[in-house]
Amino acid sequence: MAVSGSVREATLSLLESPPHRVARERAPALLAAIEWLQEGAEPREMTERAALAVVSLTTAAFAMVYFEGSGLEPQLFALGALDETAAEACSAMLRGVISSGAGSPYLLLAQGATLIAPFGDDMVRGGILARKSFGAFDDADGRMLAQFARQVGSAATTLCLRERVRGMKQVGAAALDAVNEPSQVAVEGRMKRASQPPSRLSPTQKMFGLDDLVGESAALRQVRELALVATRSDSSLLIEGETGVGKEVLAQAIHSGGPRHRGPFIAVHCAAIPRDLLESELFGYDRGAFTGADPHGHAGKFELARGGTLLLDDVADLPLEMQAKLLRVLQERSVTRLGGSRSRLVDVRVVATSNVPLRRAMEAGRFRADLFYRLSVLSIPVPPLRERREDLRPLAEHFLRKYSPLHGRRIQTVCGEALRAIESYPWPGNVRELEHWMESEVHFASPSAVSLDRLARLPTSAGQPAAPPAVRSLREVERELCAAAIAASGGDVTRAARDLGISRGRLYRKLRLYGLEPR
Predict the structure, then answer these.
(1) CB 223 within 8 A of CB 380
(2) Containing H/E element for 45?
(3) What is the CATH number that goes with domain 5-163?
(4) What is the CATH number of domain 474-513?
(5) The CATH number of the domain covering residues in 389-452
(6) Residue of 405, 396, 347, 353 lying closest to 375 (CA atoms)
(7) At 454, is the secondary structure helix, strand, or coil?
């Protein structure tokens, strides 16, 4: 965005009037720098442009620009020849001046070799640091840098407002989508919009509550009582139960009933993320951390869940080395991004789930004991459906009432043969299997039926999984491969070596080792 003619003249008048007097010959350069600064469309680009402009305007050997604002990631850019230790010292000095709320428009430090100009308003605060290797800055430099700092502050405020408007538009678009596109899909026992990722639920989305825990059994009443205790606490929580019992539903209910209900609820399926990506997914990464990384860096799930709840689903599947890093984050309440050096405070409640007893995994050496104790400050075991048969009928009727309107049916209850079949089946997939089965039955029911009297098909167990193949020694397998290659080649060692992808000499050594030398 270029500076208009009238604004240019007004700015020139301002720069030449006390107490903002800037030398006449410097004013055009300052105006050009302001124009160039305002062309930066993104926070990172604007910060880099500001640092380059400072070096050009002040002939400084080193320049640093920092600002933080509402809705924006903190931005820091340094330019110039300075070793890492000195750069860290300059960063600490600049942040200290910003935090102190210095009233002066600029500060001359280190006998004038360092010049700092802070800026700030209700939305942003930051500052500019310039440093000379030789010579010193004077008051004219200070006044000019203070004027430029104000422009940087104004540009940063504009970016904050732009981000706020962008966020409001996204919320509005999501609200319109919810009104205009009521179609939803069932994902792991709950209804979600098909267009939104299953790993994150924003505060505006419908969350499960404790009233959504359907059932009448004593076991479920105990789960509700423990969940009520958990909603009043901010301590770490461990939820254990077989696959399909509704652990994430319970985690959402505790989040929505607790003091963090206005914050985000972010779920991470630990078993689904490749080992090499786990650290960057959980803790984020800075730019240049690895090949293909986002040039602006990326916030991890801990940062995204700030002020809310982070669900670590299937936490028992975390590698041991990642367990150690997770323990450190939970103890220090801060994360350091991959490839970064600055720790970031995180205000997150961690809820972990496991489909195997975590204590048993700890005793087997697959899970760290210190992390187990840290996660299980509060613990809720969720019993499988076969141990709470009283819940079968209310759950089945709940799912029938849920899916019937979606498919043009009116079924409200289950009785007769259908009820007996449901109660006689063990439901190894637990609530998730029952839900999907009831949705299937809705499709085959009569449009006029109000009760499910007979199942269209009887549920049957998928059977026992096939036994894994017997483990054999590598030596035995290698001997068989060599023998098979020699047989297939008719005793031609060169051809057999080519088929095995090894050298002829190496195959000869293996044939001698296994007593397979051709005669």
Answers:
(1) yes
(2) helix 43-58
(3) 3.30.450.80
(4) 1.10.10
(5) 1.10.8.60
(6) 353
(7) coil
Query: Selecting from 3.40.50.300, 3.40.50.2300, 1.10.600.10, 2.40.30.110, what CATH number does the domain 199-290+297-381 have?
Result: 3.40.50.300
Contact criterion met (CB below 8 Å) for 121 and 156: no
In this structure, are residues 230 and 311 in contact, taking their beta carbons and an 8 Å threshold?
Answer: no
Closest CA to 308 of 380, 252, 387, 369: 252
Beta strand 124-131 with 237-240: parallel, antiparallel or unpaired?
Answer: unpaired
Q: Tell me: the pLDDT tens digits for 154-191?
A: 888 888 887 777 666 555 554 444 444 333 333 333 43
Q: Is 207 within 8 Å of 248 (Cβ atoms)?
A: no
- State both tokens at 215: 């059932």
- φ/ψ (deg, to 5) at 192: -140, 155
* Share above pLDDT 70 across residues of the chain, in percent, rounded to a whole number: 84
Amino acid (one-letter) located at 270:
C
Helix (H/G/I), strand (E/B), else coil: 457 = coil
Place of tokens 């820091």: 76
Model-level pTM? 0.52
Smallest Cα–Cα separation from 266: which of 170, 375, 348? 348
pLDDT of residue 241: 93
Q: Is the pLDDT of residue 404 over 80?
A: yes
Name residue, tokens 């509060």. 378
Q: Report yes or no: 322 and 280 within 8 Å, Cβ to Cβ.
A: no
Residue positions counted in the chain: 519
Domains of the chain by residue range: 5-163, 199-290+297-381, 389-452, 474-513
Q: How many other CB atoms are there within 10 angstroms of residue 136's CB atom?
A: 13
What are residue 128's DSSP bridge partners?
65, 117
Tokens at 41, concatenated: 């469309």
Instruction: Tell me the C-alpha to C-alpha distance, in Å, between residue 321 and each of 208, 275, 317, 326.
Output: 33, 10, 12, 9
Q: Which of 1-15, 125-139, 461-475 has the lowest mean pLDDT?
A: 1-15
Q: Give phi and psi for 487, each to the nearest 5.
A: -65, -40
Q: Quick check: helix, strand or coil at residue 350?
A: strand
Q: How many other C-beta atoms are found inside a 10 Å radius of the C-beta of residue 187?
A: 12
Between CA 383 and CA 391 the distance in angstroms is 11
Give tens-digit pLDDT for 296-322. Answer: 888 889 999 999 999 999 999 998 888
d(CA 281, CA 335): 12
